[in-house]
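Today's session is about reading a structure prediction critically. Students often jump straight to the picture, but the first step is always the sequence itself: look for stretches that repeat, for charged clusters, for runs of hydrophobic residues. Only then move on to the predicted structure, which in these notes is written as discrete structure tokens rather than atom positions. Here is the chain we will use throughout the hour.
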Amino acid sequence: MIVNLVVLLACQLAGEVAARAFGLPVPGPVIGMALLFAALVLRPKLAARIAPTTSGLLSHLSLLFVPAGVGVVGHLDTLGRDGVALIAALLLSTVAAILVGVWVFLAVARLMGTPE
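Below is the predicted structure for this chain, in token form.
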């Protein structure tokens, strides 16, 4: 199990190093995940080996949300003071993102000659 955790953490570390060394706009853990995916595709035995460890981590994934909950509780005064503005910003940005996604989809569909 320790070796499996080392593999996971080594991929994350490699991603962090690559992101910082090359000044990439992508977070290091995302690059690390891509590296892990490539390793799992190239070495299927590695996927079988780390499957029990990753299943165990995923079964306890809810523990990773505890810090976010603590942060919300720690800033209840800010939520009380600026809650309406925060909710409005979240709603407007969500709607804007959806509309931009639709617009891009339609633009690409027109360029590709695909009927709408």
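Discussion point for the tutorial: The CA atoms of residues 4 and 49 lie 8 Å apart.
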